[in-house]
Amino acid sequence: MTRWNTSHIPDQTGRSAVVTGANSGIGYVTARELARRGARVVLACRNESRGHTALARLRSEVPAAKAEFRQLDLADLKSVRAFAAGLDDFDGERLDLLINNAGVMALPERRTADGFEMQFGTNHLGHFALTGLLLPKLLGTPGARVVTVSSGFHALANVKLSDLNSERGYHRWIAYGRSKSANLLFSHELSRRLARAGSQVLAVAAHPGYADTNLQTAGVRMEGRTRTERAVTLLNRVVAQPAESGALPTLCAATAPHMKPDAFLGPRGALRGGPASSFRAPWTTDDATGERLWAASEELTGVTYEFGGVRAEG
C-alpha cells in the first residue's frame, strides 16, 4: 500500500455508503471521494444546517455526485434508531459501506441523552447500535465492509469494564483513549463474530494520524479556553497533515482489494504519511475483553446483533 492515494480507489458505481460525521474533516473527504468514484453516499450528521452545507459543497465539487444528507445524533439512541429505520428506503436492501467516522475528543465531562459518558457514548455505543441496526443490509450485500475510525490515542488507556461511563472519576484524555480502544475492540469482536457466522462482511478499522480538523478544538471551545484554542489551531497548521491526507487510511480500508479482516490502518509515519498497517495496543485484540465489552454494549444500547437470523456469540 506504499503511496496509496485516491487514484487507487476502485470504481464504486452501483455501491452505497453511509458516512457518519461527514459534514467536515476526514468524514467529509471520505464521503466526497466515494461519491467521486460513483458511490451513492449518505452524509449522516448531527447538525442539520452543517449537514446541508456540506452536501451543497460536495455537489459543487462533484457535480455528478449521488449524495444526500440525513440527520443522525450518535449521542441519542432514539436518533440512531430513527436514522436506521429511515434508511429502509435507501438503495433497497443494499449497503456496501458503513463508515463509523464521527466522534468527539477530550471534551469536558458531559452525558449523552441516554446518560452515558459523552465520549464513550458517542464514539463507541452510538456506532455499536448503528452497526447492529444496519447489519441486515450489510449481510445482504456481497463485499460489504464496516470501517470504524479509531485513533492512535487509543494507546492511552484500555476500556475499564467496571466503570465504562467514568462514574468513578473523569479525565478527558483517558476517557477519549478508552473510547478509541473500545472502537478497536468492537471492530475485532465484530470481525470474529462475522467469521463465526460464515459471513463475508469485512470489519476493519483506521485512524487518520494527526489531521487538521475541528476535532482538536471542540473541547476547549466548549469551555471558552480561547488561548488554548488558538494554540491548538496554530499547532494544527504547523504539525498536522490536511484532512485530505488524514482520510486516506479510511478510504483505503473501505475500498482497497484484498483487505484482511480486523486490519487497522493509519499513516505510515504514525502521525503523517500514506496508509499502512498501524500499531495497535495488545488489549485491542483481547478476545475476552472484546466479548465482555460486546455484552455490556448490547445491554446498554438494547441492540442485539442477528447474523442471518442467528445470534453469533463470542
TrEMBL record:
Its EC number is 1.1.1.100. Keywords: Oxidoreductase. GO terms for molecular function: 3-oxoacyl-[acyl-carrier-protein] reductase (NADPH) activity. The gene is fabG9. It comes from the Bacteria. This is 3-oxoacyl-[acyl-carrier-protein] reductase FabG. InterPro entries: NAD(P)-bd_dom_sf (IPR036291), SDR_fam (IPR002347).
